[in-house]
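We treat protein structure as text, and this decision shapes the records that our systems exchange. The tokens are whole numbers drawn from a learned vocabulary of local backbone shapes. One such record is reproduced below, unchanged from the form in which we store it:
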Amino acid sequence: MRTKEFLAVAGSLGLAGAQAPPVSTLSTTMSGVLPYLPVSTGFTGVETIEGAIVYDGPIVDGFTGPGGNATIQTNNPAATYMATLPMTQFDDATSTTIMGTVTGMANSNGTGVMFYIDFSGFPAESEYGPFVYHIHNMPVPADGNCTATLGHLDPTDRGEYHPCEDTQPETCQAGDLAGKHGNITSSTFNSSYLELYLSTTPGSPYFFGDKSVVIHTSNTTRLTCANFAMVSSTSANSTSTMSGTATSTSAPATYTGAADKIVGSGVLGLIFAALGAVIL
């Protein structure tokens, strides 16, 4: 869905006290978003919403940032982090509430992280999708403002102008989960996969446990977000004592919702029960 159409829909819904995110033009370099200016003739800038590029540029085979390819993460300590979406959306322009969790567990052999995605409540894909989700650099503040999470986790400074190629995940932004593992195109979304370029090691440039997950419409408008919190010292295909809770604030959002964390231990239990053998 194009930006002007989305903003028109948002306005027609009569959002209670909310304003649609403004569109701005980015014509200079910005770390993590546009680290290089495109070399195409006549480039005058790209449209952005909340700091994210609205329309992708051309695919450039093997494109990387100044930091080169992402590094496969090994020796990850056993740990499980979960982000649980709030009951109120940051941007309620779609008049739906997306619910669910993102759980990341260190792989049993220490290489990479197993992710389990469980979302529901997406609005019509034909109007607002396909939906994308990413790990963002900053946590969600107490007021629930998804814009404050800034850009994607991108330790190689690749940027987002040139689309990620899922056949070359090492060239993508580390936090671009949708780019590497697929967009969301239905009202419910369940997926699991091994992500080699994220870490459970605090202090690593690829560590995601102190960051956030953000869900966007196709034009990058941020719909909802949540922080990761450690819920267990467990890796995939292993067992350990779970805390079952994650502490967070629940203050009302500056925009239209809250991004607090409401962890369901029952969901986490289902994930552990479903774990099978994981290789690599």
The two ends are 38 Å apart (CA to CA). The first helix runs from residue 3 to 12.
